């Protein structure tokens, strides 16, 4: 495909093969089909092959727009093998578009192995941007957007999920998570347990679809609303959580630094170095270090 409006991506680290095709990373709608850009539609119609997470789902999308490009299955179970085959076709001059079931490919979806293999082979990789559920939710959440941390899907098991959240207690950035409908209530309950009832949070449901809904409030508000059935347990969810207040952020950072130092150093030395790193009071850090050491039974 040699479309003058679709320039080949420049690869600084590996020389691009002039005879090879291009791998296009194409975003598709997350609900509203009108969100497919003209460029994305033209790309999907012009490439030699579309690599799709679910070929049946993508076929319905392509059929809606009158696109008849052949499909190739690329999912988490065959990505290594499929990537090698696709890179071989790209080397021969064919162009390929990679799509996910919805939204921007590779964001909590398969595909990065193919992109990495193509780039390593000197094949141009070009993004065709569009919808992304995480960014769509964040843009309308009303939480801080100058800096955020995308976590994808949290661990499905409660113990692992809580450990992840506990490691983020002092994180000052807005958190963005995806969650399956059958675990969303558990995630909201864990947010309350770990972050407290007052942490600002927003639950976005069915983005860009007919029943798009935003539930805004505190973590406690959302957990209660889920429990009493005020939030419909149906559809796809994005959870946005406000960052830790400044004082919590300071505490979380000091704990992280202390734990790293205590793994190698005595309490007094760890506290002194942590004070130099964080700018916090040495006496406060010394007490915190003693608590951490006691928590670990006297070990690091």
Strand content: 15-25%
User: What's the overall average pLDDT, rounded?
Assistant: 91
- State the share of residues found in helices, binned by percent: 40-55%
Q: SS-based structural class?
A: alpha/beta
Task: Sum up the overall morphology in one term.
Answer: globular
Q: How many DSSP H or I helices?
A: 11
Widest sheet: strand order?
3-2-4-1-5
Query: What can be said about the biggest beta sheet?
Result: 5 strands, parallel
Strand count: 10
Order of helices and strands: EHEHEHEHEHEHEHEEHEHHH
Q: Residue ranges: pLDDT <50 for 5 or more in a row?
A: none
Q: What does the radius of gyration come to?
A: 23 Å
Span between termini: 59 Å
Describe this structure as you would to a colleague.
The chain is an alpha/beta fold and 300 residues long. The protein has 11 helices and 10 strands. It has helices at residues 38-46, 55-64, 79-91, 112-120, 133-141, 158-166, 181-195, 219-227, 246-262, 267-278, 282-295; strands spanning 22-26, 49-52, 71-73, 96-99, 124-128, 148-152, 174-179, 200-205, 213-218, 237-241. Strands 3-2-4-1-5 form a 5-stranded parallel sheet, sandwiched between helices. Helix 6 (158-166) crosses helix 7 (181-195), helix 9 crosses helix 11 and helix 10 (267-278) crosses helix 11 (282-295). The longest helix is centred in the C-terminal third of the chain and has 17 residues, at 246-262. It is globular and about 70 Å long. The protein starts with 21 loop residues before the first strand and ends in a 5-residue tail after the last helix. The model has no long low-confidence stretch (mean pLDDT 91).
